[in-house]
Amino acid sequence: MLLNIPGVLEGEALRHAQRLLASANWVDGRVTAGHQSAQVKDNLQIPEGSPEARELGGLVLSALETNPLFISGVLPLRVFPPLFNRYDPGMTFGAHVDNAIRQVTGTPHRIRTDVSCTLFLADPGDYDGGELVVEDNFGEHRVKLPAGHMVVYPATSLHRVMPVTRGSRLASFFWVQSMVRDDAQRALLFDLDMAINGVRGDLAAEHRGPVQLTSIYHNLLRRWADA
Ligand code: NI
Question: How far apart, in whole angstroms, are the C-alpha atoms of residue 3 and residue 122?
Answer without folding.
Answer: 19
